[in-house]
Amino acid sequence: MYYGGIEAGGTKFVCAVSDEHQQIIARTKFATTTPNETIIKINTFFSEYSVVRMAVGAFGPIGINPDSQDYGYVKETPKKGWQHFNFLGELKKIFHIPIVWTTDVNVATYGEYKMGAATNKSSALYLTVGTGIGGGLIYKNNVFQNWNHPEMGHIMVSPMHKDKYTGNCPYHKSCLEGMASGPALEARANQKALAIPKDDPLWNLEAFYLAQAAMTYTLLLLS
Amino acid sequence: MYYGGIEAGGTKFVCAVSDEHQQIIARTKFATTTPNETIIKINTFFSEYSVVRMAVGAFGPIGINPDSQDYGYVKETPKKGWQHFNFLGELKKIFHIPIVWTTDVNVATYGEYKMGAATNKSSALYLTVGTGIGGGLIYKNNVFQNWNHPEMGHIMVSPMHKDKYTGNCPYHKSCLEGMASGPALEARANQKALAIPKDDPLWNLEAFYLAQAAMTYTLLLLS
Lengths: 223, 223
Description:
Two copies of one chain form a homodimer.
Chain A: E1 2-8, E2 12-18, E3 24-31, H1 35-46, E4 51-58, H2 87-94, E5 99-103, H3 104-115, E6 124-129, E7 133-139, E8 142-143, H4 176-180, H5 182-189, H6 201-222
Parallel strand pairs in A: 1-4, 4-5
Antiparallel strand pairs in A: 1-2, 2-3, 6-7, 7-8
């Protein structure tokens, strides 16, 4: 029995097939281009395997509330061509099997909970820092999901003393993502994050913002 | 059939008895003094009614995780004599009936959910601003409670431009409570909050902090 998984990233897609022992037996990776091209590539890859269930973790924001009209859709995103694309709907036209769908960070959180760092825990919070900042929460053994999905990267933060950077979030400017994402760090350093020396004070600044966010998550979600 | 309710505040206690139609048939109020004196007053009031169940909403922080050693206890509080007091344990010695116990704000949140502003909603967030700032969350028809209870008032906030006040929280100085509680507002105004004119810019400042907190709660708890 085979299962399909799709990690739908804003930069690249990863598709994989596993057997019933969670062993990956096939995997492919391709750049994220237009929705139509992407759907064709997904179809081509999975057509060689008779998968019985599929799970999708997608870059957001996406509609994951089954009671909402935008369920299954990619919502407002800077990613060209993907705005208001009925992603889940298109997948369901091709694959006539049950498909579960949530955000990329919810999928990663759930993975850590089921088979990773949070195995045997009833609560877990997962945070990823890259081009953006996003997070997911396991609450009492389930993915926490209220009206739609948390936006952990967009909370406002108290700025670090002497930090003159004003933030680069297109929506909030100086929210956590605006102050502590990869591009925000690189804008201050004027070089790639990987090239910033380990003893550069910028890493302390990065830690300041992430620790502050961790405090907020702890007070609101984990306490 | 009678039910007992206790609102255990840091300044005053309110005890009430209701019938099975949620009609309050008796009520008393007294200043919060020592734990021993308070327990005696509670006992005296309820001894006239044969209540079959009791609910307590207490000022915090308190232990509300049944799996934790501090369950039923008042924890670290500036309130003299109440630190590490086994409040629920003392009540159970007197009343041999089922007693449920949670924070004052959780009780208020649940009240709004069952019979108030959030009737027929599956999610609700309640925030109170007074001497301190506290909040509770209803998530999928239940009180949200992870390890213990949220501390909504103690999240860090981005300061308002030109606000020179540095905050009065004894733990975090400039967290939400430190910047926007009643005493924080009064410290800036140098007068009682009720005496501050409605058109004073301080109210705009207060709204700035509460709106920022509401944004954070929405992104993390309600989205």
